[in-house]
């Protein structure tokens, strides 16, 4: 029986990025219990640290891990400012349409950092975001990523309208 469970787990971990999905759940739950952020243009930051999982042969955070961390940071961001729920309600999907990243200084093993995410703007198809990795050692910006978050099945404008209408009607009810 134990052997069966272990083999099933092995199979799962070999074929699926289990940590990715667990981390997604963790971000969701964490953000759920934090207060909502009303201003969708507000910069939000989350804390991170370089773990053994992130390392490559050079012993620093591998370039691809930055994008992965940015993913979770954006998810957190959208959870807190309502973009996530609004896009779900409107049946929209948010996919990355483009990204570009500049690496300015390596993040070393166990180095603590913040990811500061903000929405820079939007057009009829996509939101544009900036995500900065800031070392907690000296506030140095170690990497900067720009990302186009395409909205499929709706539009950024409808999502924003949805969020702010809800806020306005919520305000009316409480007054
Ligand atoms: C490092 O990043 C490259 C992509 O540039 C990827 O192919 C590789 O698997 C990554 N290595 C590790 C150890 O994460």
Show the helix and strand layout:
Blueprint: H1 2-15, H2 18-32, E1 44-49, H3 63-81, H4 83-89, E2 93-103, E3 112-122, E4 126-135, E5 141-152, H5 156-174
Antiparallel strand pairs: 1-3, 2-5, 3-4, 4-5
Short account of what is shown:
With about 180 residues, the protein is of the alpha+beta class. The chain has helices spanning about 1-15, 20-30, 65-80, 85-90, 155-175, and strands at about 45-50, 95-105, 110-120, 125-135, 140-150. Bound molecules: 2-acetamido-2-deoxy-beta-D-glucopyranose (NAG).
Rg is 18 Å
Average pLDDT number: 94
CATH architecture: Roll
Distance between the termini: 60 Å
How many beta strands in the DSSP annotation? Answer: 5
Fill in the CATH topology.
Thiol Ester Dehydrase, Chain A
Helix content: 40-55%
Strand count, sense and closure of the main sheet?
5 strands, antiparallel
Q: Could you name the CATH class?
A: Alpha Beta
Number of domains: 1
Structural class: alpha+beta
Ligand list: 2-acetamido-2-deoxy-beta-D-glucopyranose
> Strand arrangement, largest sheet?
1-3-4-5-2
Shape: globular
Specify the CATH homologous superfamily. Hotdog Thioesterase
What percent of residues are in strands?
A: 25-35%
Unreliable stretches covering 5 or more consecutive residues: none
**Tally the helices: what do you get?**
5
SSE arrangement, N to C:
HHEHHEEEEH
């Amino acid at each position: 029986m134990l052997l069966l469970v272990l083999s099933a787990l092995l199979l799962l971990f070999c074929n699926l990025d289990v940590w990715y999905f667990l981390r997604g759940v963790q971000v969701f739950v964490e953000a759920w219990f934090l207060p909502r952020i009303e201003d969708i243009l507000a910069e939000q930051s989350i804390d991170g640290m370089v773990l053994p999982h992130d390392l490559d042969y050079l012993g620093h955070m591998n370039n691809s891990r930055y994008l992965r961390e940015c993913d979770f940071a954006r998810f957190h961001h959208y959870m807190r400012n309502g973009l996530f729920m609004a896009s779900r309600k409107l049946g929209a999907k948010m996919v990355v349409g483009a990204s570009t990243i500049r690496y300015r200084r390596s993040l070393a093993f166990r180095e603590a950092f913040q990811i500061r995410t903000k929405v820079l703007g939007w057009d009829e198809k996509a939101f544009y975001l900036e995500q900065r990795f800031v070392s907690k050692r000296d506030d140095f910006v170690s990497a900067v990523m720009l990302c186009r978050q395409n909205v499929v099945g709706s539009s950024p404008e409808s999502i924003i309208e949805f969020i702010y209408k809800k806020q306005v009607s919520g305000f009316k009810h409480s007054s």
